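Good morning,

Both structures are done.
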Amino acid sequence: MPLETRPSKDEFFVQVALACASRSTCLRRRYGAVLVDQQGTIVATGYNGAPPKMAHCTDIGACPRDKVGAGIGERAELCKGVHAEQNALIQAGKTARGCTMYVAGEDVAHGKPAQPLPCFICTKMLMSAGVPWVVVRDIDGRIRSIGVVDLYQHYLALYRGAPVA
């Protein structure tokens, strides 16, 4: 492979996150997450799906949230899935501290990139685990790095009704 076509580190790990997303059992969106330490070693991976030994939405052929017409971010209590970020953090345990989280996803129905930002709960978990950065593939395909504390502040402002930059 010529050197000029070699993906950047961020591009590479986003592609790994997309590969993880292919294991998702969600009928709406597939997400993958990869925790990478400061030396560039993969510490843990995760994808969204039901907890172990539970029926997945792909197994039963239905999404409980679709049944009630819930939109994005609505009726999360009905979702059977554990988020990709959460699964990666569970796998990593204390080794997550200081790692960077790479997150990428796709909309199942359209095959296009899905909203990449970790939800507020995942953001708080990332903060608690000591993960300082999240690298995401935006819906336009661009890759960007976001400080987890900045993402937390973004959600606080959003929930307070303040303008969000």
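Second structure follows.
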Amino acid sequence: MGTEHWQMVNENINVVSNTPLDLWLAACNYFKWCDDNPIKTKRAVGVGKDAGKEVETTKQRPYSIKGLCLHCNVTEEYLRDLRRVNNNESEYYTVVSKILYIIYTQNAELAIIGEYNSIFVSKMLNIDSQEAPQANIKVEIVQGLPQLSKSESEILEKLDLENSI
């Protein structure tokens, strides 16, 4: 059986990121650890000749922000602060954005195909609470415009009157 995440943290195998590259490499290490250490559970077989027999099942371990933070020895606030910089030229911003996209994509894709519970994933990723961006809309009432026509024939009649003058 693979190493549990708490054991890695307890054994101080985790990495502190001093540079954007360190953070990226630590995140890649976390993703690889997740892939190499699937979650194993036991369940009873419900039907067939093996009914009642316990079998081990393996499920892909989901990537998570909290798991990443444990693995990299950083806090969520640290990642949020790096992301808030919102400067496309900042290497930290680029690295954190890419890491968050990877986590989001892995969770969303596996929820879409039914591997993960889609309701849980949508709540965890705040998918249902993302609001449309607010826009400033200005409504201006313009006076003195010509009255709209009610049909095409009315328009043609007005054009005929204009051309005959």
